[in-house]
């Protein structure tokens, strides 16, 4: 029950819908919301059977079936695998079986994009050392090693992947990856990193009919080059909308989903980054701007009437995750890419906060650990010797990587979670 689950709860709770939040962390911020009745369960990755039994017990004796909104990749897979058992007591929408795996597996996402004529960066899928020679012959540096299954990767590595700037680094990092057993892709980085990132989202019913769409722009993310949005605003980007809808329709997607694209300054093309087959952390922004995809899906599946706001949604409605954005600001400031005044001014223009709401304020205090997480973040940032994310904005990325290796990976992290 982080920003994603909390936003779902607030969107539905304000409409008078009872909400049960589910998480393995007893201190999850979303549990502190006045709209949430909490259900603490075993971790979905460690004991999925215990989670299944907990849900079945929770569904017993209900007057009507409850709806389930998955808020993570692991939850999407869990629902797909347990659809038969859960559908007796719950309502949820999963895509057809042939496309479920593609929603989580980035290789299958890539293959579907190629089939549908959607631009993607140069990508390889090495499964052993013998495959690296082909990678080295075509990939451009810096390159990014990232997992095919993000929810599995995070159990081993405390990052979204590895940046490599030379063939030697590629082989060194891939040796670690091969030893870990994770499946990965090696991808040329779409230039420049951390810029021109747009997403489009929609809800698709059982027949493939889409709701009104919503597009948003990442203004900042954490970490700045590769990360999750920390300052995001509503926008209109017709090319991204067309490409995103083509992809989701082309694979026969059902439910709430969104596709992220990035403009490659080298060739001017919008290239697909990834698709997420679930609600996203910025769904509070969608509701604030008048495109509540969560509410669209809820009303459709329950047969309740919903009258969407007439007209188009406005550009420039901003969503902010303050703690992550403090981290992002600190890294950008030490690079000389933002001033303190510019950051403060951007924060004053925020319309919706990831955790704070005047009518539901407690989740923010829990998010900050009542001050302890902010203190830890400040300490981590002050002690940070080098920022791994800065490799991509450095004039000498090779030297920056060497500096990281000399200090060790812990010198680059803040570990906000």
Which topology of the domain at 3-95 does CATH recognise? Rossmann fold
Radius of gyration: 21 Å
The CATH class name of the domain at 3-95 reads Alpha Beta
Q: Based on the coordinates given, report the CATH architecture of the domain at 3-95.
A: 3-Layer(aba) Sandwich
Helix content: 25-40%
> Would you tell me the structural class of the helices and strands?
alpha+beta
Count all strands and give the number. 15
Number of helices: 17
Q: How many strands, which pairing sense, and closed or not: the largest β-sheet?
A: 7 strands, mixed
Which spans of ≥5 residues are poorly predicted at pLDDT below 50? 397-413
CATH superfamily of the domain at 3-95: NAD(P)-binding Rossmann-like Domain
Shape: globular
Beta-strand content bin = 15-25%
- Walk across the major sheet and give the strand order: 13-12-9-10-11-14-15
* Distance N to C terminus: 12 Å
Mean pLDDT: 86
Task: Describe this structure in a few short sentences.
With 417 residues, the chain is an alpha+beta fold. It contains 17 helices and 15 strands.
